[in-house]
Structures are given as C-alpha cells and as structure tokens.
C-alpha cells in the first residue's frame, strides 16, 4: 500500500513532524510519500490561507497521486479535501474529519486544543461542515504569537497541556484533539499526563486511510463526488489541468 501525505503549508519542519508521526501509524509494508506545498503560508489559520492551502494540496495531488492507493491531507481544517475527493479516483482522508470521527467513537464530547486564537473561527466552521458541532465541548487555543512553527511543541508544550486540562475540568471534554500538523506527535508524548484520551489527527488519518484502502470501495460514477464534467481551463499547472476540466476518464488513476 502506498499513501501520499500532503502538508498544505510551506513549512518543511512541519512536514518532518507529520512524517515522524505518520511512520508510527503505518503497518509493515505501507509506503509513504511525503509532500510539502510549493506555495502558500508557513501555517494556516484563516479562511483565505485555507483556500490557498487547498489549491496547493490539489496541485501536489495532481502531480503525485498516480500509483498511490490513498491521499492524506495533513492540515487541521482539511483544506481541499472535498475537491480532492471529487477529482481523484482513490480515497482521500483529512486529518480533521478523521480526528472528529475518532473522537466521537471514544467519548460523547470533545475539545480542540489549537495553536492560535485566530484559527478558532475556521475550525468551528470545519467542525460544523463535518456535522459535529453538537459534540464540541470547546476550542481552547494559545494566545501569543508563534516564534517558530516547527518548534511550537517545545516552546508551548506546557501551555498546551494546561489548556487540555482546563478543557476537561471546565468544559466537560471526554476526549481531546490536539489540533494542527505542528502538533503532530504531541498527543502521543503527553497522553499519560492527561485525564482523558488525547487524539492526534495525523495518527487518525493514517489509520483511516489504510482502512479505506482495505475496504476497497469503488470510485463513484454518480452523485456529487462523481467525476466532474469536461470543460476548458486556463492557467492551471499541467497535471492539475488534466484533472480539472478535461476528459477525466483518461486521467484519473485508481489503485486497488
């Protein structure tokens, strides 16, 4: 099994954090291809940045998805997730949706622990779009600028743990999601210090991607995620243009 894991921001340090956690979450024989966005921002915390990250993820997936069995979008908020599901013939998993689904299987109410206050609005909208707003206990977030996104765990780890403890004590969280690719691996390292289960979106996404490949569901030929219609396009990278607006039946690759 081959999985393409895309970091939709430009931080190579964050990609390395994602890869480290992803490699702990794969089975023997599963291969990873790691990719970092070629354009965009160091980390995503606004709607505009999410749109850019989604485009970057689509560009990377278009270039690299062939010969892979599934794609993972490794940014909390899942930029580009629905679009990628629409244009690719293989499973596409987002770390937010994966973490939310897993959290609801573990407890009744979950809290999100995030890296910035500004990110909260986008996260709430993403949670609502996934249909889990009524299970959200709270979002608690750091309230100071991040000096180096690749070192947020080292620089802010104790504050993040304190936020997690408050979410359980004050907000009634049954399960915690330590959100965002820059926090990849933190849930594993602090789990023993927290009074309820803590989930990592990268871990959840990698396990679910492998499970979806095992399920072997056929690509849709009807419904809203069927291949989009052929139409002229301009100004897109060649690989993406082949997926967005031409004869999709010739260009979508599905690996069984």
Describe the SSE topology.
Layout: E1 2-7, H1 12-24, E2 31-36, H2 47-64, E3 70-73, H3 81-87, E4 92-94, H4 95-106, E5 110-114, H5 120-130, E6 136-141, H6 152-171, E7 175-178, H7 186-190, E8 198-200, H8 201-215, H9 238-243, H10 248-251
Helix pairs in contact: 4-8
Family: Belongs to the HyuE racemase family.
Protein name: Asp/Glu/hydantoin racemase
GO molecular function, one term: amino-acid racemase activity
Structure description:
InterPro entries: Asp/Glu/hydantoin_racemase, Hydantoin_racemase-like, Iso_Racemase_Enz_sf. Belongs to the HyuE racemase family. This is Asp/Glu/hydantoin racemase. GO terms for molecular function: amino-acid racemase activity. By secondary structure, the chain is an alpha/beta fold. The chain has 10 helices and 8 strands. It has helices at 12-24, 47-64, 81-87, 95-106, 120-130, 152-171, 186-190, 201-215, 238-243, 248-251; strands at residues 2-7, 31-36, 70-73, 92-94, 110-114, 136-141, 175-178, 198-200. The strands form 2 sheets. Strands 2-1-3-4 form a 4-stranded parallel β-sheet, sandwiched between helices. Helix 5 links the parallel strand 5 and strand 6. It is globular and about 55 Å long. Mean pLDDT is 91; it is low at 247-256.
């Amino acid at each position: 099994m081959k999985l393409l894991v895309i970091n939709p921001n430009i931080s190579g340090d964050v990609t390395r954090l994602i890869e480290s956690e992803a490699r702990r979450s794969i089975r023997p024989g599963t291969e990873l291809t790691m990719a970092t966005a070629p354009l965009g921002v160091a980390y995503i915390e606004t709607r505009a940045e999410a749109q850019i990250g989604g485009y970057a993820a689509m560009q990377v997936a278009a270039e690299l998805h062939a010969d892979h069995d599934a794609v993972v979008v490794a940014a909390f908020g899942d930029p580009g997730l629905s679009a990628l599901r629409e244009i690719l013939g293989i499973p596409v998993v987002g770390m937010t949706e994966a973490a939310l689904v897993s959290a609801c299987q573990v407890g009744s109410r979950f809290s999100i622990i995030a890296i910035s206050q500004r990110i909260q609005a986008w996260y709430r909208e993403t949670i609502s779009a996934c249909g889990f707003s009524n299970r959200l206990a709270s979002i608690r977030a750091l309230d100071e600028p991040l000096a180096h996104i690749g070192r947020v765990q080292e620089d802010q780890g104790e504050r993040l743990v304190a936020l997690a403890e408050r979410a359980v004590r004050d907000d009634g969280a049954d399960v915690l999601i330590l959100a965002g690719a820059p926090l990849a691996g933190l849930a594993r390292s602090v789990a023993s210090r927290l009074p309820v289960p803590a989930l990592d979106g990268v871990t959840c996404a990698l396990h679910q991607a492998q499970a979806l490949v095992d399920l072997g569901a056929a690509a849709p030929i009807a419904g809203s995620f069927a291949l989009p219609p052929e139409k002229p396009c301009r100004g897109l990278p060649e690989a993406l243009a082949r997926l967005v607006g031409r004869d999709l039946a010739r260009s979508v690759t599905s690996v069984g």
